[in-house]
Amino acid sequence: MLTTVPAFDRIGEENAFAVLARANALAAQGRDVINLGIGQPDFPTPSHIVEAAVKALRDGHHGYTPATGIPALREAIAADILARTGVETSPDDVLVVPGGKVTMYAAILMFGVPGAEILYPDPGFPIYRSMIEYTGATPVPLPIREDNDFAFDPDDVEARMSERTRLVIVNSPANPTGGVTPPADVERLVRILERHPTVAVLSDEIYGRMTYDGLPHASLGAFPGLRDRLILLDGFSKTYAMTGWRLGWSLWPRSLIDKARKLAVNAWSCVNAPTQHAGVAALTGPQDDVERMVAAFDERRRTVVERLNALPGVTCRTPKGAFYAFPNVADTGWAAKPLADALLADTGVALIGGPDFGTLGEGYVRVSYAASKDRILEAMDRVDGFLRSRAAA
Length: 393
Prior knowledge:
alpha/beta; 7-stranded mixed sheet; 3-stranded antiparallel sheet; 12 strands
């Protein structure tokens, strides 16, 4: 029997993909499956972005690029950061990566060693904890609470920091909760972090263009005082409906960017060239499609929250960002994961059980409203029928 190093026994996974596989298997059997589990926009990639990739291929852009990304894309990213945060950054500090997870991998790998502590949101994106455990560092969960509208509480961050803290991970707008940390709390968090100058910060802002009800997205990139230790994660998957393109980017401190570049050289060489040209078109081209998608998500958000709150035993806070609702299902009498499993098996509705996002996810399920409004309404009808029939039984 082959034996691997112990680190590989500590790797977790993202169960949304396991649910997707089960949903696809049911669909292959002829079942009508409504997938509200995977975080994937149902819109096509805007046509001008697609055409930019096609043109790049026809123009011969099929070879290697710099490991950090083509200059035009890094310049477009720096311009986008300036437009959205008011802070001027150098394209030389930008790393183009094959998807947002790669930035998590690189940042956690840099700071995660046995004896170190890394703070991360719970419930939160499962890859945070998985990668922390892989490195041998100690994961320290930051509680994300329903009674705080699933926003970060800066006091919780400070209470959990110690002399062993090497990295703090924050995520707003958040997956899986849809929570958005208000600007005032972000500023409080920054003041706390300023008192810990040797601690690095990974700010996952992949949903930064998706906030609702006039609530602004407060980017940590807007605070120059953190610039020398902030790793900013963003990308194209959600904003531009480009999940399968695998195109992300990150902004690194000057002291770390060459380390990140070397990791790129060793691990993935570069992002494929035509996708990078598509990224330039996404950032520099018209943003009408983005605005239409966000408006559609907003409408779906209102629909799904209304329908979730009408389900027996279910309550749901209105999410303020991203495209997820995180309803409380504790009063249904079901534990979260068995409920999600039963709904998929019995009704063909795919959801994700809250414990897949952390120990504090028990009692909740994640509902993605990246599906069409008609499919959301049909899914809610099926869930309603299931809960009422099981309650009657």
